[in-house]
Amino acid sequence: MHTPLCRHAVGEPTEYAAQAAKLGLTEIGFTEHAPMPEEDFDDWRMLESELDLYQEKLDQAEQDHPGLTIRRSLEIDYLPEYENWIKNLAKRYRWDYLIGSVHYIGDKWSFDHPDKRDSWEGKDLNQVWKEYYCRLVDSVSLGVFDIIGHCDLIKVFGDRPDGDLSHLWRPFLEAVKQSDIAIEINTGGLQKPCGEMYPEPALLEMAAEMGVGLTFGSDAHKPERVGDHFDAAVALAKRSGFTEYRRFAGGQYESVPF
Ligand code: ZN
Ligand code: FE
Predict the structure, then answer these.
(1) C-alpha of residue 153 to centroid of ligand 2, in Å
(2) Which end of the chain is less crowded, N or C, counting CB atoms within 10 A of the terminal residue's CB?
(3) Among residues 248, 164, 174, which one has the least CA distance to residue 209?
């Protein structure tokens, strides 16, 4: 879940926590878009100078909701040129877990930006998807992330090559399995043009068969979306063959059977 620090989410962490408590959730995690070394890298993330404020906002949510466990995390953008920056971010606080996400491919192409739909014009879909999955594999190889975020975000506008994509998914999922990290079912995709959760069912089935770890995320950018469609997400996980999911604390995970 996000906070106003990224400038495109609304509601303070304590409001997300209130909503979680109302829904009967016992544990939530904040994964704000992590800073980049350049303050003008883009305009949809917290600044480096706001990292302490982020922690304070989470402290406040904790104080206001003592019955709720609040996990502290970041959603970190993976770009190959920023590997040292990412490693350093990971060391700054005792994060409970870290999500690695790819929102940029090629020459800093922000392929999922809602205002940049036109940037897809003339793209070779096979090439774009191949590049996206290559970058996901690189993000796993960095060895910092516990969870790879929305691992088919590239479908966000509904541009997907036809047919079987297992040749793209398999090397990625093998890397995830090898590193003993997790993917997530992210219900945020339901709000996007693609109209479905990330990732698609066939990818999930492959992941379950390979024994890849799984978590759940709402990717909430407003308090009303906390835990959104989690019943459907759990049903999808079970239907895909998963028998357990992962919980994180202090950089370690435990597997919880359904
Ligand atoms: Zn966001
Ligand atoms: Fe994301």
Answers:
(1) 8
(2) C
(3) 174
Is this prediction's pTM over 0.85?
A: yes
Span from the CA of 112 to the centroid of ligand 2 (angstroms): 9
For the stretch 41-50, pLDDT in tens is 999 999 999 9
Q: Which two tokens stand for residue 160?
A: 């997907």
Cα(148) to ligand 2 centroid in Å equals 10
Compute the distance from residue 41 Cα to the ligand 1 centre, in Å: 15
Give the ligand at the shortest distance from the Cα of 8: 1
Å from CA of 5 to ligand 1 middle? 10
Separation of CA 140 and ligand 2 centre (Å): 16
Band (203; pLDDT cuts 50, 70, 90): very high
**What's the CA dihedral at 90, 110, 157, 10 to 10 degrees?**
60
For the four alpha carbons of 105, 108, 114 and 115, in that order, the dihedral sign comes to: negative
Are the beta carbons of 170 and 178 closer than 8 angstroms?
Answer: no
CB 194 within 8 Å of CB 152: no
